[in-house]
Amino acid sequence: MFQVVKNGIKRYYIGRRLKMCIIPYVLLKKGFSRQNFLLVSAYTENEFVFTDSVTAIRGTEKNILKSIAGCLNSFFSSYHLLLQGSSAGVERELGHNEEDRFTIPIVLNQEIADKVDKIQSLYKEKNNRIMHAETLESQIEDEEKVLNETILDSFRLTTPEKSLIDYAITITIPQINNQEAPLANPSEKQLVKYAKIFADHFGKRWNKEPTFFEIDIYYNEYIAGMNFKVVKQKPHQIINIKQENAGDLLKLIKIGEEKITDVFFKQRDIRGFNKTSFYIVKPNQYKNWHEAMAYSDLSEFVDAMLKAETSTGNK
Length: 315
Known about the structure:
By secondary structure, the protein is an alpha+beta fold. It has 2 domains: 15-176, no CATH class; 186-314, no CATH class.
């Protein structure tokens, strides 16, 4: 233990090297949130005494330390813990320094440092005020969302890569924690997001006269399906939603809804091709209609089409 007298005040430091306890530093808890695998860290210029459940990352460049704090608190670190963490989701919400927390990639960015300053200021204001706490909480959520987007952009991730990280945060981790959210019905907005990925890809090929690309979305409580069509008349809109008519899609693909139980739709996907269209039917659960699944399904359809064209060409 080191004792230092400064301005008449005694301060005590535990450790082998006094210089390791000098501010500024980032404080990082050993534990993380079980709900979303988020680490807990903060940049500080105040001196603290803390136990071995907290690790201090010391440096001289303040903006570098703030960037480190921002990256550690981001969804990118949650994704890393999910893939690489040896203890995440297994027993206790603890992260091992060498294996889990200190292998997380860090990007240095002035915008990240500024966002960390803003967010920590909002937290301080929230903790010191009783009134308007809900407003401050909403501001914090908005700033944290921007921070996450800034970090992902700083790593120069593609849109499909970002969707994969979002899938991990909103679906994979909640499933590990036995949460119901991934099994809930997706909103119409979510179904449109899924369909738009197909529209953007195939629209480049077919949205030219004399053909056009159109998508019909059918859904009810149990199942949802999409029929991707090549039509000769320009549609009023590319994506059309037909609520409570999932059976119509099944008739189009010559499968009678009355002959298949709801249990079947909870266990199986149906996909295939018609003469001028192709289709996909899945259980109507959010996890099945996320954008990351759209990229995966799109890849399968494109691969099947290429194989079919190759086979036809060989004949």
